[in-house]
């Protein structure tokens, strides 16, 4: 049966050739159902049972959950099917074709991370259900690059359970057990307009924001004194003030001001508590000011991730790769798989420096070690 599955390179080519861009800009956003159908066909031909799970709010996007073997425990190999948008004019090669040059595979999604899905299927093509004491799953998610809606829907449904998970995001084949979270919030202040010649006529939202910014920076210093983790290149939580808009005229008291912030918490800092602290910090600062405060999340946010150094999946991943585990600066879907009870490692063949860049590539020399790694991992965990 497995003869009918295309070769590894043909699978990668088919995935790169099928655009599946996620973007918060609706004119750029695309569905992923064609990719899901390609994967579903290959996996069914390999003997997997396949479920396609359309996203509740957007049926043009779906997750795929494929299972080989029976019973509890087991291992999930996971990757996202979408890519970021690309600026075709900046590319030397066609981003939607697979180009082999300089011992590399060029194309949008080669590193981040369509190739991983093909590598996982290639690694599993010879494995039979009867060989497995515990099941192996392939999970392909939708919409990772925008809001992680696919992984969130999967976590909310709470039906996929396994002992371990590996997410093949680009880590240079180094096991990753930690990343920071992401929280982006809009702080909107509503005051009152009036003629600039008489401050008593209005209530300046811009001046109120000045006080809020001061308190935010004090709060940031406090967080950075309290939380510290030397495994990260930037060992403290960060808070960036990234956007501000307020007012329209020098002779008008500013009635409205809006600030957008980006907070990157370390493991151990829970998003709901941080949001409560943030709101408390702003409302106490503006107590009795007559300014109305609205705090709106700009995205669902991603929790920080940590799997302990002595967890078995980390030890196995370290042993099989010969690399010690560490932390990365980017967020992944790992927190959602952890919510489902899986001990999770992030480990994949690409390099994050090539992701989200023109002429994204995967080094050809990464293919064979990845296939071997995945086969050894399945052998260690599932047989
Ligand atoms: Zn990715």
Ligands in the model, by name, code or SMILES, are: zinc ion
Beta-strand content bin: 15-25%
Q: Strand-and-helix sequence, N→C? A: HHEEEEEHEHEEEHEEHEEHEHEEH
- Mean pLDDT, all residues: 96
Radius of gyration: 24 Å
Show the helix and strand layout:
Layout: H1 8-16, H2 33-46, E1 49-55, E2 58-68, E3 75-80, E4 99-101, E5 104-106, H3 114-124, E6 136-141, H4 149-157, E7 164-167, E8 176-179, E9 183-190, H5 205-226, E10 238-246, E11 256-264, H6 271-285, E12 292-297, E13 305-306, H7 312-321, E14 326-328, H8 334-339, E15 343-346, E16 361-363, H9 367-382
Parallel strand pairs: 3-6, 3-7, 7-15, 8-14
Antiparallel strand pairs: 1-2, 2-6, 4-5, 5-16, 8-13, 9-11, 9-12, 10-11
Helix pairs in contact: 1-3, 2-3, 3-9, 5-6, 7-9
The structure holds zinc ion (ZN).
Can you give a write-up of this model?
The chain is an alpha/beta fold and 383 residues long. It contains nine helices and 16 strands. It has a six-stranded mixed β-sheet, with helices on both faces. A four-stranded antiparallel β-sheet has the order 10-11-9-12, with helices on one face. A three-stranded antiparallel β-sheet has the order 4-5-16, with no helix packed on it. The longest helix is centred in the middle third of the chain and has 22 residues, at 205-226. The protein is elongated, with a radius of gyration of 24 Å. It starts with 7 loop residues before the first helix and ends with a helix. The mean pLDDT is 96. The protein binds zinc ion. Zinc ion binds at residues 80, 112-113, 144, 169.
């Amino acid at each position: 049966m497995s003869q009918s599955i295309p070769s590894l390179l043909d699978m990668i080519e088919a995935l790169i050739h099928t655009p599946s861009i996620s973007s918060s800009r609706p004119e750029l956003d695309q569905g992923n159902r064609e990719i899901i159908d390609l994967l579903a066909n290959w996996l069914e031909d390999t003997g997997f049972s396949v479920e396609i799970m359309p996203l509740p709010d957007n049926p043009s996007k779906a997750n795929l959950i494929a299972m080989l073997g029976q019973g509890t425990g087991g291992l999930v190999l996971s990757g996202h099917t979408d890519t970021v948008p690309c600026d075709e004019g900046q590319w030397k090669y066609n981003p939607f074709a697979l180009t082999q040059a300089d011992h590399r595979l060029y194309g949008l999604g080669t590193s981040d991370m369509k190739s991983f899905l093909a590598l996982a299927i290639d690694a599993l093509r010879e494995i039979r259900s009867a060989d497995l004491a515990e099941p192996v799953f392939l999970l392909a998610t939708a919409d990772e690059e925008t809001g992680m809606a696919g992984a969130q829907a999967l976590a909310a449904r709470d039906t996929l359970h396994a002992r371990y998970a590996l997410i093949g995001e680009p880590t240079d084949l180094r096991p990753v057990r930690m990343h920071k979270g992401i929280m982006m919030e809009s702080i909107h202040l509503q005051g009152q307009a009036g003629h600039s010649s008489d401050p008593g006529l209005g209530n300046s939202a811009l001046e109120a924001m000045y006080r809020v910014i001061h308190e935010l920076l004090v709060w940031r210093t406090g967080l950075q004194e309290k939380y510290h983790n030397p495994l990260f290149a930037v060992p403290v939580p960060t808070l960036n003030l990234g956007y501000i808009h307020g007012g329209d005229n020098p002779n008008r008291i500013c009635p409205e001001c809006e600030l957008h912030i980006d907070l990157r918490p370390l493991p151990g800092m829970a998003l709901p508590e941080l949001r409560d602290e943030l709101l408390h910090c702003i409302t106490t600062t503006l107590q009795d000011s007559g300014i109305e405060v609205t705090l709106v999340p700009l995205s669902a946010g991603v929790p920080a991730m940590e799997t302990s150094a002595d967890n078995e999946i980390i030890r196995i991943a370290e042993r099989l790769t010969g690399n010690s585990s560490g932390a990365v600066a980017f967020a992944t879907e790992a927190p959602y798989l952890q919510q489902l009870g899986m001990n999770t490692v992030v480990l994949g063949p690409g390099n994050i420096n090539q992701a989200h860049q023109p002429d994204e590539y995967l080094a050809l020399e990464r293919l064979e070690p990845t296939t071997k790694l995945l086969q050894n991992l399945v052998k260690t965990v599932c047989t």
